């Protein structure tokens, strides 16, 4: 059971709410603009240190207040972590078990979670950044040592771009660092996709009823090594002042019935395909950690017909994750067992009797 309790103070419209979570199923219902999505956003912020809606901190602090505070207790194995963070004018502060100085990676480690929200189709339809972030999230949890290598690669990329914008001095040295770190990130991503492809194909077939393939694109031409790609693009990189080839340009190409998904799949199908990817990621990480994680679903019925929603929820329940689900109508979803039901109204949370 990942989440035991959650508290939010002055987060969006939530003045002071406490959620004592059921270990399996939690249903949050209420009218539009009542605070349901804000509650999920707060939960996700506690595990990520950022808003899944892309909102800046000023939009997250309740009107008239200086900061918001989030607190939760999360269980991993036999250990219960106390996770706290505050954010406002003085910046983000994270505490784990009362100790300051923690970073967002520590949040992700203590409270691993995924979320399915009404914009989840962007994982399929939007640019490659979301798909890289998706693959890197799995790698963070299942590939030992991935995070420090990814951080070292990002530093090398930043320094190489700085050299490109300047005189080009020191470029050869940063090329070597960039290639060394980049190849390690690339190898970890390939290994992650290999571990995930069975779950990805299974979920895609279950939700879409179609064969889905996932092709990894490294970010440079496959006929070249990364070092050769940098040499071939050196003049272009200097002209543009940025690195055009490398793992930061990687992507996952999604093929549904031999058609590229982002171009030929309807919005509803894009949502199902994106949901399949999220459920597969959840499955892979849970199997690696050998315990359930937290899965948040914001109005899963949006843009889905009755049959599609039923297929989605069947796969969701089969994962065995701890769920927090929002809905306009508390009777719209049928759970395998009675969920803990909460009502949100004007930013206040109460448990149904």
Structural notes for this entry:
The structure is a single chain. By secondary structure, the chain is an alpha/beta fold. A six-stranded antiparallel beta sheet has the order 2-1-4-5-6-7. A six-stranded mixed beta sheet has the order 8-12-13-3-14-15, sandwiched between helices. The relative contact order is 0.17. Strand 4 (67-76) and strand 5 form a beta hairpin. The mean pLDDT is 94. The protein is built from twelve helices and 15 strands.
List keywords for this structure.
353 residues; alpha/beta; Rossmann fold; 2 domains; 6-stranded antiparallel β-sheet; 6-stranded mixed β-sheet; 12 helices; 15 strands; 24% strand
Set down the secondary structure blueprint.
Layout: E1 3-11, E2 14-20, E3 25-29, H1 36-48, H2 57-60, E4 67-76, E5 79-88, E6 93-96, E7 99-100, H3 104-110, E8 113-116, H4 122-125, H5 128-142, H6 146-165, H7 171-208, E9 212-217, H8 226-232, H9 234-240, E10 251-256, E11 259-260, H10 261-264, H11 267-289, E12 294-298, H12 306-319, E13 322-327, E14 340-345, E15 348-351
Parallel strand pairs: 3-13, 3-14, 8-12, 12-13
Antiparallel strand pairs: 1-2, 1-4, 4-5, 5-6, 6-7, 9-10, 10-11, 14-15
Distance between the termini: 23 Å
Widest sheet: strand order? Answer: 2-1-4-5-6-7
Q: What would CATH call the class of the largest domain?
A: Alpha Beta
CATH architecture of the largest domain: 3-Layer(aba) Sandwich
Mean pLDDT figure: 94
Following the backbone from N to C, one meets helices and strands in this order, namely EEEHHEEEEHEHHHHEHHEEHHEHEEE
Low-confidence stretches: none
Helix content, binned percent: 40-55%
Proportion of residues in extended strands: 15-25%
